[in-house]
Amino acid sequence: MILCLVEHDRGTPDEASLQALAFARRYADGGPVHALAVGLEPAGLDEHGVSTLHVAEHDAFGAYAPAAVSQAVVALLERLAPTAVVAAGTERGNEVLAHVAARTGLPLAANCIAATPGEPVSVTRVRWGGSLLEDALVHGPVALLTVQPHAVPAEPAPVRAPAVERFTPELSEQDLAVRVSEHVDAVEGGISLAEAKVVVSGGRGVGGEAGFGPLEELAALLGGAVGCSRAVTSAGWRPHADQVGQTGTKVAPELYIACGISGATQHVAGLKGAKTLLAINSDPEAPIFGHADYAVVGDLHEIVPAIVEELRR
Amino acid sequence: MNVLVCVKRVPMTGGRIVLTPDEQAIETRHLGFTISPHEECGVEEAVRIVEREGGAVTVLTLGVADAEEQLRDAMAIGADRGVLLETDGEEWEPGETARAIVEAVERDRAGGTAYDLLVFGNESADAGNFQVGIRVAYALGLPVVTGLKGLAVENGRARCEREVPGGREVVDVALPAVVTVKEGINLPRYPSVPGRLRAKKKPLDVVRPDRAATEAARLQKVRLHVPEGQGKEAVVLGHGPAAAPAVAEVIRQLGLAP
Ligand SMILES: Cc1cc2nc3c(=O)[nH]c(=O)nc-3n(C[C@H](O)[C@H](O)[C@H](O)COP(=O)(O)OP(=O)(O)OC[C@H]3O[C@@H](n4cnc5c(N)ncnc54)[C@H](O)[C@@H]3O)c2cc1C
Ligand SMILES: Nc1ncnc2c1ncn2[C@@H]1O[C@H](COP(=O)(O)O)[C@@H](O)[C@H]1O
After folding, report:
1. Chain A contact for B220, CB < 8 A?
2. Which end of chain A has fewer CB atoms at under 10 Å, N or C?
């Protein structure tokens, strides 16, 4: 039996968790997949091959407390003895399973794209934010696995309403020592980088804060957002919120325009979801061209304004 | 305030990753080394806290002897002391790494330095296991808050902020505690020349940790490989501003033109 943690937003399961369920189903190979949801019963799991849905209920689950969620997982783990526990490779999924790993001493393989049961379990997982893959073995009585988002489609399974079982885990004071106490709303700041259809991104080649003017103009014209490389944020030209890459934002636009960006693997790790990549660079040998669909060679300070002018015609 | 920051030496890979013939590691003969930007921000955050609250910052790494370079870099921006848990170069799995860090923390406590705050990266740059900090916290019986984009330490408590869709969530926790941080929590300073000179003279403890291998429960690397789908042939639309009409045409064909 495989146990899969399902994250949800007030009852609507997260896409990444549905992908984790598809991964769990494939791993279970016809065997039962149980799901665990915390707080309340999520809707719409009928098409995702869950045989039993466990709903952990507790007054404390109104605010996120990672240790408390992990205690719910551990309680089920002890009662049901699954061979693997799967969660989405999201911030919370990775966090909760790391808590489970620390509580139980079990091994955790984060951000897997494939897994084959066995003793040991074989997995392929991502490293360097997706620039490198690792084949690894997970030795232990139970494998804890998180699933790299977007690696496995959340394909639906034959419709079957899961049996629902509610339980109340016993939580200690320590389980609630770290618990969200407050939310601060973001100041509305235009189109979000993560969701923009067009991203116009600048690197060190832009030369300075002021150099971003024409990129802003192009982005505004296309209804897109401005992004940048780490060279730019490190220099203080743009805030870190604009950084695309392994330690910045992961983007998935229809079109990504990289201006004066060399194409370091850590930058490219952030734009794997882009459908079309256009690179503008003065160096014809720049590595970014090896990832691009379209290339323009030359000085971005001349090219970007010329594109703006052409589009305005 | 005694603050510990844990950092990991990793290669600076540039535009293309080349593996060693045994597929166990990245070919580093022509590469420099660094630490994760998350960890760099962790060092900066620790230094700022100690500048305000008083105390000392210890920076720790588990790695090869040459990882002293990354400890000295951290000292150059203000860390006071280094701990090098020296290994022969083979990568340790996350459970083993956590155990060695816990032993080092307990050794320091026995020696009179008890840490109020332990700072980790949210995830290491190369392995991305998302777990060493959390494992250390549990082994020490401490609370742990991950993925911080904001931190304020005052009166023995830490106000921690992390980003969630639509804003930030706040967690308030009593010290001692473990935190894991993300790039963007601050903008790290560049080391000054006097800072670099001072760093050379700061104390460094070198310890060879026992590798208490737990065969029964562990993650074992078999091989690395580069994902497929790299090395595309880009369509060259032109050189210089003369390419603008062709670019505009592509944008129109994608249905994205204004
Ligand atoms: C663990 C780790 C995580 C990292 N995370 C990130 C991340 O999240 N995001 C990120 O971006 N980086 C990240 N980096 C840094 C990354 O390795 C590179 O250092 C960075 O992406 C380089 O930025 P750049 O391309 O702007 O600068 P450079 O590499 O300096 O490239 C500048 C480019 O501009 C071109 N150019 C110069 N002038 C012009 C001109 N006038 N017109 C046109 N082209 C011009 C040059 O030919 C060159 O190709 C990370 C590094 C590490 C080690
Ligand atoms: N070899 C190491 N030496 C020191 N700290 C480490 C090491 N490996 C991991 N860490 C710390 O643990 C964090 C999380 O690592 P990981 O669990 O591998 O993603 C890193 O950002 C570091 O702060």
Report:
1. yes
2. C
Asked whether the whole model's pTM tops 0.95, one would answer yes
Shortest CA gap A289–chain B (Å): 6
C-alpha torsion sign, points B16, B18, B24, B30: negative
The CA distance from B52 to B257, in Å, is 51
Give the mutation candidate from A73, A103, A108, A234 for the B interface (greatest B CB count, under 10 A): A108
Instruction: Give pLDDT tens digits for A140-165.
Output: 999 999 999 988 888 888 889 999 99
The token duo for B13 is 């890979």
Instruction: Name the region of B167 (left: φ>0; alpha: ψ -120 to 50; beta: rest).
Output: left
Q: How many CA atoms lie within 13 A of B31 on its CB side?
A: 18
Q: Ligand 1 pocket, A231 CB below 6 A? A: yes
d(CA B76, CA B84): 16
For residues B247 and B14, the model is more confident at B247
Beta pairing partners, B164? B167
What is the token pair recorded at A293? 């669909």
Nearest residue (CA) to ligand 1, atom 14: A266
Residue B10 C-alpha to ligand 1 middle, in angstroms?
18
* Per-residue pLDDT at A188 exceeds 80: no
Dump strand ranges (E) for chain B.
Answer: 2-6, 10-11, 33-34, 56-63, 81-86, 117-121, 144-154, 157-164, 167-174, 177-181, 204-207, 218-225, 235-239
Residue bearing the CA closest to ligand 1, atom 35:
A260
- For A203-221, write each residue's pLDDT tens digit: 999 999 999 999 999 999 9
What is the interface pTM, i.e. ipTM, of the complex? Answer: 0.97
